[in-house]
Structure formats: structure tokens, C-alpha cells
Amino acid sequence: MDRKIVILTEGHSNPHTAKTGCCVIRYRGDEVLAVIDSTQEGKPVSSCLGVGEDLLFISSLSQAPQANTLLIGIAPPGGKVPESWRPIILEAIEKGMNVVSGLHDFISDDTEFADAASQQEVELIDVRKNNMTEIARRPGFREDCFRIHTVGHDCSVGKMVTSVEITNGLKDRGVDAQFLPTGQTGIMIEGIGYPMDRVIADFISGATEKLVLEQQHHDVLVIEGQGSIVHPSYSAVTLGILHGSFPHALVLCYEVLRDTITGLEHMNIPPLTKIRELNEMMGGVFQPCPVIAVSMNGRRVSAEEAEEEKRRVEGELGLPVCDVFRDGREKLVDVVDQFRLDWLKKKQDG
Amino acid sequence: MDRKIVILTEGHSNPHTAKTGCCVIRYRGDEVLAVIDSTQEGKPVSSCLGVGEDLLFISSLSQAPQANTLLIGIAPPGGKVPESWRPIILEAIEKGMNVVSGLHDFISDDTEFADAASQQEVELIDVRKNNMTEIARRPGFREDCFRIHTVGHDCSVGKMVTSVEITNGLKDRGVDAQFLPTGQTGIMIEGIGYPMDRVIADFISGATEKLVLEQQHHDVLVIEGQGSIVHPSYSAVTLGILHGSFPHALVLCYEVLRDTITGLEHMNIPPLTKIRELNEMMGGVFQPCPVIAVSMNGRRVSAEEAEEEKRRVEGELGLPVCDVFRDGREKLVDVVDQFRLDWLKKKQDG
User: Fold this and answer.
1) ipTM
2) Cβ(A162)–Cβ(A235) below 8 Å
């Protein structure tokens, strides 16, 4: 059954809080019918979310009668379902729609939702629910499969978007590349992946390794990073994915003017040079793991400021810097593809 | 009710696999009546485990009729209950004993065990079971509370023992110190702590921070480390505890002749200088976090070899090295106490 999705962002229709909704619209827009936010009814979705030119905000599910899936479009820290959304979720279930959620708080564990879903024979899909108990063993990585990993200086700076863009750019060139999602939004888009922040701590690297082993028939794996190696709340998830995916190279993602740590605004983010150094050292314990490019998110600055920032960072780090939204992805894809070809050649030359 | 413990190590009575049993005997020996291993019946426990001079191996629970608690004394990777132990656990429940387990595989989730326990009204205590959903926020750490953290070059090299010995040594000097367990064995010994490797990945640092905040009325917190920052399977847990506890100083624990990574014997452990550098860099992102001493586990070498190794490492790292079993703990406690006093003085001098 094809998904016909209504995205729920009620009262939270901004690109940051509704990151999940935005990314589903960006990469699976053909499956999306509308976005529910009664406070924005009738407006184009793009006016609030920056994506979804052809979509409108609606105030009620009755305005999208063909929809068969309600997708919860936000991922707040802590992951609770806002109380005011309960009637909308229940209405969707009553209408026979499946409900997809990436929250930590599982909708399928909620008795009221679960009972209603069972009566209506619809599915409650908790993307973060998992039962991973694999331990990373570093066995049998395919020698010729190139693994590239996106890391960041903070949460929500564009690691997933960068990963998808690199993958799609490589595919456009005929390279057999696969995006490996490690978070709820990527999983909703790609249909594979594991929610690494929801895995039991002992098994994060194991879950990442399992994902790599399952997909390494592809020639390139682009592994989505999470959080940041210096984020005091989430660095464990970041490192688990870095060590579990054992990448050959990194792309460093950052947002211009993002100075303080998400959720811990009393703390400053260390400079990019430090973020690069720590990622290269921690990723490079057992094989070289250089940062080969920077993916810059310039949404908070003007085109002119972005250009200036780009030159500054290129000078400071000695690396190519690319803003995939403003410049397109080709500069980034060039760097990754060339590095991979050199890497392959070096291997063949032995 | 006082615990009168029989420890189960059936078929696995060696110090490595039965680490949990050994540590409970070492630090809660007054509560232990006997150790069950029918393959060693009648022998002194110390002949196999190196601790428990006054204890004997027994082959059946009937040989320790006063016991009220069966404690599972091993912690295998993967954490499954060996099939051959099921009858012993069931017999304990039938006799009205509580059962304490640190395995990943929860005994309280096992229908046969749970039904029997419910009939007999005994408790099945899964030390790793938890429901942590705290996110680390770095709020309100008490300024004058000194936090010291044990890190290691691998799993099972003596981080817990080192933490307990430092704590007890400080207490002997009248310092208000508290050991903070982060793993199942420490929790069984100390009665507080959280099983960080079993916490959902997003909440490891939050669980560690919660433990610190709950105990920071003490003047010194000695936080047990887990795994190793370079261990490809478990480094996420290691870093989550390092960032969640935000320590002022580290003690680096290692075992002489341990060259390969536990569970990944095809991989070599990087040199101590590298382990030290990575821990200091990752622990020191937001405040200095020096390694101030080395705790050496010399169980595999002679006294003479241990002395030579100690001199070599002292020279190489420029740090005091102490083998708490051979030398006693005072050298280590001296270093920690002096560093803490200097740290306090520096703070007071402002």
C-alpha cells in the first residue's frame, strides 16, 4: 500500500522543532498530502517550514480524506507526545489511518492508542522501538566497500541532509551508493536503518556494525552521524556510531552562527578545528579517518555572509567547504568521489 | 533482612568470567556463605578465584541451608543465563531464596522463573533493569565536590577495584568520599548506582549525571569507569560516563601483558600514552581533566616483573604507578588526596 501521509506539526511548525516533518517533505514529498497545524491553516507549508511549495496547512484530518498515514513530524528532546495532539492521533486511528512516530515515548505502548488501533486494525509504527542486542565484533567488513560518515559540531546542523545529498549525488554519477540512516527521520525516509539513540548502550556500535554488514554489497555506504562528539548529553551515541561504522573518511557538518550547544545553551561549542581534531583522533585509532570536506549550513546568514564564512573556514581548515542548499551538492560529491577513487587506487596498488 | 548469599559460578570459577562473584566476595565477603560449583566441590574458593579464604565450593544449595539469596556470579558477553544453571536457579526460588542477577538477559522476564518467584513470594532482582530517561544538562554540580574517575585501556582490568580502594583509602583518612558504581557488580556491592551499559543510549550521560547529583553532598566522588575509550564494542558507554560525570581528574587502569582487546582478540590495544591522550582530550573539552596516576594490575606477572614494568611506565608516562594488590593502595590514595587538596586550594585562592 502506498503511503498517503498527513504530517502532524500542530503548534510547532518551524524548521528546527519540525525537522522530521521537513525532511520527510524534502525527500518523500510525493507521499505527503498536507500538514496539520490549525494555527497556520490555509498557509503554504513552505512559508513556515521552508519546504513543501505545493502543500498547504490544514486544521483537521477531514480536509485530507484520502490520507492513510499520520506521521508525527517533530522530535522534541525527551520525546513526549504533547497532550494537545492526543485527540488528533485518536481521530486518525478512528479513521483507519496508520500512525508513524519517531518519539522516545512509544505510541504503541500507550493503552488508549493501542486499544483503538487494535479495534481499527491499523498499525502504530514506533520507528525508535527496537530490540538490538548485537555486540560490535569488527568482523568481515568488505575490503572494497568505502564507508563515509557525517559528523557535526552539534545536533540538528544537517548531517542527515548532507548524507542523503552525498548519496544521491554519487548515484547520479552511476556509483552504487547507499545512505545508512541512524535516526528516526532517516529511517522514515529510507525505510532501513536503526535508531541508534534508542539502542541499549552496550549495543550501539553493534547495531551500527550490523547495518553496515547488511548493506555492504553496495560500493559506498554513507553513514549518518548523530549529535556531536563534544555534546555532554549525546556524545556516547555519536562515538558509538563512529566506532561501529569504522569509516574511511568524515564530512564535518556545521551551522554558521551556532555558538552554543543545543539544549545546554550555557555552554559554548568548541571551535571547528577542535571538533575536527577530536573526530579524527577518535575515528582514527585503528585506521586513518580524515575529515575531507566541510558541509556548511548557512540558513541563518545572507548569501554574502555565507560566502565570506566559507572562505574563512576553507582557509582555517584547509578543506573544501560546501553549502548544499545554496551551492548545490556537486562540490561535496566531487571531493567524496575523488577521495574514494584515490583510496581504491591505493588499495589496488597495495 | 540481612543477605546470606550463595554465589553461583557453576563451571566458570575463574577470576575473569566470575569477576562479579570475586568482587562480591572481596568487598561483601561477610555476607557470603559459599560458592556453588559442583566441578570444584570441597575446594577452598580462593584456590580458583583468588579470594574467599574462609569459603568452600559446594555442589548443591542443600549444603548451605541458611542462605536466603542466590547471586549469579558471572557476567558473560551477551549476558545469557547458561541452560545448565536453570535448575539451580529454580531450586533456589523453590527454597524461598531471592535471586540477584547482573545479566543483560533479565531473570524476571523469564516466565518460568517469574511464575515460580511469584508463587514463593521471593524477589528476582535484575541489577541491570532500569528505566532511565534523564538527559544530561550539566546543571548545578556542587563547586567544592571533587570528582575523580577511573578509566582503562580495556574491559575488566581493575577500574572497579581501583575505585573502591581509592574510596576506602580516602575514608580511612577521614575524607568524606563515596564510590559511584556504574556497573552491575559495583551496584551489588554498594547498593547504589546505575547500570550504564544497559541504559538507553540517549540517556547514558544523563544517568551518570543523575548519580553524581544525588551523591554530591559527599566531598569526593569516585566514579567507576566502564570499558575503554578505544574499545570498538563499548566505547560509547565509556564516553557517556566520562562526559556525564565531568571529572576533575582521571586514574588510568591497565593490566600488564593485556595486549589485545577483550572480545576482539584480532585487534591490539593502543599504547598507554595513546589511551591517556584520548581520555585527557575527550574528558578535557570543557575543563582540565588530567590523568594523575596509573593503577597497574599485575596479576599475570611475577613481583619482580611487576616492579620492572612499574618503573618503565612511571618513566614513560611521568606518573606514579601503583599495583593495589601487591603494594597496597596508599601510594594511589596519596596522589588523589594531594591533587584534591591542591585543587581545593587553587579554587579558594580563586
Assistant:
1) 0.95
2) no
